[in-house]
């Protein structure tokens, strides 16, 4: 009887020891797995199918933690979506697909799919007047000389500036990206190539329109034809 009790106690102690040992080995194994997985990083996966060129929204994506080692396999993943609403995808995204940097492109600055951006670089025939910045409005004045018939006219007015290129040292504007309708884009490129001179004038912005409308109304309209080289508006001397 005493031998049976002694064996029972021995088995109980062995069971406890084995259980502790198994728990220790399991915890050690978990730690090894965690160490092999490394740190995690937040990525964003699509919660719905997204077509290409579709403007993105934050609610289209869900945050997900994955090990850093897998991020390297996925490429340059997006880890922040603070400015996602200014981007579009180049290719369609399927639900559950991870968002990557190489699949993103900034939203076009054009306000209409019928418009185009024409880059106008300053040179000896093209001049910019005023401190022009992106999203400003400008007027374009074009001077031509066709067979001795010299003409200066308003080519376009209230044209939106999509982008500005500046000299890094002097901060001088070197080129403008102008948003124009497709038909006008062709005409502007023609003028850029063959006109005698092009002047880009900074137009009054919305906050200035009220105070400057009267002064501007007298300078708008018409072209001036001259054979003696003088220019102006409506056949008046400047």
UniProtKB/TrEMBL annotation:
Location of the Flp pilus assembly protein RcpC/CpaB domain: 111-194
Cited InterPro entries: Pilus_assmbl_Flp-typ_CpaB, RcpC_dom
Annotated Polar residues bias: 210-238
Organism in which the protein naturally occurs: Melghirimyces profundicolus
Positions of region (Disordered): 204-238
Superkingdom of this protein's organism: Bacteria
Protein name: Flp pilus assembly protein CpaB
């Amino acid at each position: 009887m005493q031998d049976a009790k002694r064996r029972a106690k021995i088995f109980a102690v062995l069971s406890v020891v084995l259980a502790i040992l198994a728990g220790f080995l399991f915890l050690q194994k978990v730690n090894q797995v965690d160490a092999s997985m490394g740190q995690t990083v937040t990525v964003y996966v699509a919660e719905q199918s997204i077509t290409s060129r579709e403007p993105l929204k934050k609610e289209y994506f869900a945050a997900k933690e994955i090990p850093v080692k897998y991020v390297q396999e996925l490429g340059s993943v997006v880890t922040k979506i603070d400015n996602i609403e200014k981007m579009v995808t180049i290719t369609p995204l399927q639900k559950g697909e991870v968002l990557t940097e190489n699949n993103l492109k900034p939203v076009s600055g054009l306000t209409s799919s019928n418009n185009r951006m024409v880059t106008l670089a300053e040179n000896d025939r093209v001049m910019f007047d005023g401190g022009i910045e992106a999203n400003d409005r400008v007027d374009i004045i074009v001077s031509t000389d066709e067979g001795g018939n010299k003409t200066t006219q308003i080519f376009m007015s209230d044209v939106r500036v999509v982008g500005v290129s500046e000299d890094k040292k002097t901060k001088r504007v070197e080129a403008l990206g102008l948003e124009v309708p497709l038909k006008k884009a062709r005409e502007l490129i023609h003028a850029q190539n063959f006109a005698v001179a092009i002047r880009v004038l900074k137009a009054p912005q919305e906050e200035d329109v009220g105070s400057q409308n009267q002064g501007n109304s007298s300078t708008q309209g018409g072209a001036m034809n001259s054979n003696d080289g003088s220019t102006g508006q409506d056949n008046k001397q400047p």
